[in-house]
From TrEMBL:
UniProt similarity note: Belongs to the RmuC family.
Record's protein name: DNA recombination protein RmuC
Classification of source organism: Bacteria, Pseudomonadati, Pseudomonadota, Gammaproteobacteria, Lysobacterales
One GO process term, biological-process aspect: DNA recombination
Source organism per UniProt: Cognatilysobacter bugurensis
PANTHER family named in the record: DNA RECOMBINATION PROTEIN RMUC (PTHR30563:SF0)
Coiled coil segments of this chain: 114-148
């Protein structure tokens, strides 16, 4: 039911009263008119009764609205109390959630790092197996090519020996039968054969030399990659031990330097930078290679800024890390005698850390370093308890920092973050080496293809030389103007060389019979008269 405002009730009552007055006046007038007055009086009486009933209903509604208004006021008071309790519970919830989120991020980073390392090892192992298979295949092809080359060299040597023997056998006959012209042609032919042989051998050596050099370079790169994989595996195995040792050392250093950190701001700053650099070195990063200290950068207003650390990332990216060591209030909270003093000191510690976030955001380091910088700045707090205590005291502190692009990092979380950065650098280095190996393998295959093409050319030249030799032999033996048959004819007629008669010029059976007849005829025709008388 809709509540009627009190002013509306009063106005309605006034209206009803005015209506009653009007009805009374009309009744007085009607009393003067006996006939019409009675009728109007009855109508006015009915109207009065109706208005009186409405007035009673209006009063009843007013009472109900008052009761509802009281109930609403009580509900509003109860709601305000519930809102206050909800705010307190929400603050506690945000504190617990912040602590859980910090722990979850740290565990997630460690798990992600281990998973990434495992994936890298599996990828490298698979790559090594692929490279070993490729190397075995290339070595097999090289062995086959060497065998083919040895066979070709042997065939060339045999052919050269055969050519030399043939030239030795034919040299005397050619000198006697063909004369100087044939000797010059034979010398030219021998020169061409020797030149082709020497040139082929030089070409083979020229082709094999870069092939052998590239194969040696390929083997060296594979050995280097094996060594780096073993080194990375050893580094990964010792990472957890180094992390544990580093945390213990940092805890000991924190306890030893507590007194020095209370008063001197310069000592606090130097100690914070020392702790930050210790975490960087423990993560496997190198100064001047993976990060820079106190790098100067000038803003648009001309002011010079020097962030503590600028960590380089693959792809020409970077992220700024700033160390904050304002731990006076935190130390007072740790040494407080009662709970109130502890809470008051922790509150001041959270306020100081919030002020540091504001100052760090005002420096706008990502804007100073341009597009190469990540859009966040890491605020390094060297003591785990100081950071978790501030976040537990001020539940909105982390959200306040996120809104201003500031990320808190303790030694453990920063170590995990930097391990990821080191893994990114390792992955990029392995990728570059794989690309170089792939490029070297492509060049090796190109050189092998060129060698095989030249090897085919050598075979074609050797076959051409064999064809030329066969053609020359046919011209010497089988053609109409062949010299060998004429030389055999001369031998059959009794012409003898000074040296041993070559087998190629030995007469066959028919030639021997013809030679016997010719010798007999010669003896008959050349005999003297005295000899005939004696007979």
């Amino acid at each position: 039911m809709t509540a009627i405002p009190p002013l509306a009730v009063i106005a309605l009552l006034a209206l009803v009263a005015a209506a009653l007055v009007f009805v009374g006046i009309m009744l007085l007038r009607l009393q003067r008119r006996p006939s019409e007055a009675e009728t109007r009086a009855q109508a006015l009486a009915a109207e009065r009764d109706r208005l009186a009933a409405e007035l009673d209903q209006t009063r009843a509604r007013g009472r109900e609205d008052g009761e509802q208004l009281g109930a609403l006021r009580a509900a509003a008071a109860s709601h305000a109390q519930l809102v206050d309790e909800h705010a307190v519970l929400r603050t506690r919830f945000e504190t617990v959630r912040s602590e859980l989120e910090t722990e979850r991020v740290a565990r997630g980073a460690a798990a992600a790092e281990l998973a990434d390392r495992s994936a890298q090892l599996e990828t490298m192992r698979a790559r090594m197996q692929t490279l070993e298979t490729e190397l075995s295949r290339v070595q097999s092809e090289h062995a086959q090519a060497s065998a083919h080359l040895t066979h070709a060299e042997k065939a060339r040597t045999q052919m050269q020996q055969f050519v030399d023997e043939a030239q030795a056998r034919l040299s005397d006959a050619f000198a006697q039968l063909a004369g100087k012209a044939f000797e010059e042609r034979g010398a030219v032919f021998e020169k061409n054969i020797r030149h082709a042989t020497v040139q082929s051998k030089a070409d083979i050596e020229t082709l094999l030399k870069p092939f052998a050099e590239q194969l040696g370079e390929f083997r060296q790169r594979v050995d280097t990659l094996y060594g780096e994989e073993a080194k990375e595996r050893a580094t990964l195995v010792g990472a957890l031990g180094e992390l544990r040792t580093l945390n213990q050392d940092m805890a000991a250093q924190a306890a030893a330097l507590t007194k020095a950190l209370k008063g001197n701001a310069k000592v606090r700053g130097d100690w914070g930078e020392l702790m930050l650099e210790s975490v960087l070195r423990g993560s496997g990063l190198e100064d001047g290679v993976h990060y820079e200290r106190q790098k100067q950068v000038v803003g648009e207003d001309g002011r010079s800024h020097r962030p503590d650390i600028v960590v380089r990332l693959p792809g020409d990216r970077c992220v700024v890390v700033d160390s904050k060591v304002n731990l006076v209030a935190w130390e007072q909270a740790m040494n407080a005698d009662d709970i109130d003093a502890h809470h008051e000191a922790m509150h001041r510690h959270a306020i100081a850390l919030r002020q540091h976030v504001r100052e760090l955001a005002d420096k706008q380091y990502p804007k100073l370093f341009g597009e190469s910088a990540l859009d966040v700045t890491v605020a390094f707090i060297p003591i785990e308890g100081a950071l978790s205590g501030a976040l537990g005291t001020d539940g909105s502190l982390q959200t306040y920092a996120f809104e201003r692009r500031i990320v808190f990092a303790s030694p453990n979380t920063l170590m995990a973050l930097l391990r990821v950065v080191d893994g990114l650098w390792t992955r990029e280095r392995i990728q570059k080496q794989a690309e170089e190996i792939n490029k070297a393998g492509g060049l090796l295959l190109d050189a092998l293809g060129a060698f095989l093409e030249d090897f085919e050319k050598i075979g074609a030249r050797l076959r051409a030389a064999d064809d030329t030799f066969s053609a020359a032999k046919r011209r010497l033996i089988d053609s109409k103007m062949a010299v060998i048959p004429r030389a055999k004819r001369l031998v059959s007629l009794g012409v003898k060389p000074k040296g041993k008669l070559p087998e190629l010029l030995a007469p066959d059976a028919d030639t021997e019979i013809e030679a016997f007849g010719q010798n007999l005829l010669k003896q008959v025709t050349t005999s003297t008269p005295g000899d005939r008388d004696a007979e």
